[in-house]
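Hi team, as promised in this morning's meeting, here are the two structures we talked about. I've kept the exact order from the run log so nobody has to guess. The first one is mostly here for context; it's the second one we should focus on when we meet again. Sequence first, then the predicted structure tokens.
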Amino acid sequence: MCVFAGICARCKNKVVGENNGCTAMDQVYHVDCFTCENNCNTRLRGQPFYALEGKAFCEACYVNSLERCSTCSKPITDRILRATGKPYHPDCFTCVVCGKSLDGVPFTVDATNQIHCIEDFHRKFAPRCSVCLQPIMPDDGQEETVRIVALDRSFHVQCYKCEDCGVQLSSEADGRGCYPLDDHILCRECNGRAVQNITS
């Protein structure tokens, strides 16, 4: 006596006989009908398969259908991190300078769309102090910094000093303003002495 197993979800014909059918995704199939939906027609009975929107795919077709990481080009089988309009493995989304993971961390991109942590971006692109030649960037834990510009040159606040006597310059209101002379940064007293030396 032939056993009726149900109606095949693929061909809609009766599935009759013990070894002619199989059950997958809560449906009955003929063994020959339960194949990969991606035209490779790999038989899936007894094989690992992936169900997507009610369709069965063999492992190879499923992996080939996945988005690929913009960094390593391998399929993303787990969580996708999207940034700058591209997909990434969370572990592949890193700073191009230091390699630190930027998953869940603030980041920025340069003009060529390369990804940087905030610190390396500042180190690489921040204006440089004309005295110490170091980048002018926020201190750790800070988001902003002060840059002084004088004579088309940039200065750290602590590097903005009279070139002759070394007094810290600030604003004219404090009486410690900058009095430049011949492209030199000077305080008022040193400027006065230099002007006197020129005229005498």
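And here is the second protein, the one for discussion:
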Amino acid sequence: MEYQSLYHTQVINKDGIEGVSYVNEPNGLSVTVSSPMKNHAGTNPEQLLGLSLATCLNATIEAEEKRRGYEHQTVVTVEVDLAKDNPGYQFFVTATVQMPHLDANEAASVLATSLTRCPVAKLLQSSDNVNIQLTAV
């Protein structure tokens, strides 16, 4: 597939699940990583996936709200579960979106448009393990 990159980054992990992952850029983020199954300091893929979806989706919703003339009050909450699979493991992701400032029809419209524009949601939403839903406050 041909594309024109608007931004490129490189993220490196040399240590596996116990160690450090970092963004290979000047002043790039560096985080300690650890297994979610152990009581060690650090983040893990589950948390990073949740942060990625919550941030990207809410930023996309914010842009759509602004385009429609609304103040941004949306909250996106993402829950990620790790479950055993054969072989290995799999993630189950549930994202809930609250738009207390919009009526149900307009909130559904904003979310539907945002799901067609958010790169992370587009990457994940075809999975049976991902559920993105609008909830009432």
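Starting points for discussion:
The first strand starts at residue 11 and ends at 13.
The chain has a mean pLDDT of 96.
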